[in-house]
Design a protein that fits this description.
Elements (H helix, E strand, L loop, with lengths): L4 E4 L2 H9 L4 E7 L2 E10 L2 H16 L1
Antiparallel strand pairs: 1-3, 2-3
Length: about 60
Amino acid sequence: MNNETIVITQERMAGWLMFNRFHKVDEKADLKDLNRKIFIFKDSPKLRETMVKYNQFKELI
């Protein structure tokens, strides 16, 4: 992948990003574990900020 995208391996994180109106660029099978998928998003400062918010939210639960 180029440096304009970010690969997300956690389905819940990908779901959080999509819930927050980020669109995935692609979805592929994880070559390390064919039962899992990887999710590819366009990288941006706003996306990174939303990922931090998810991690803060997750710590509260």
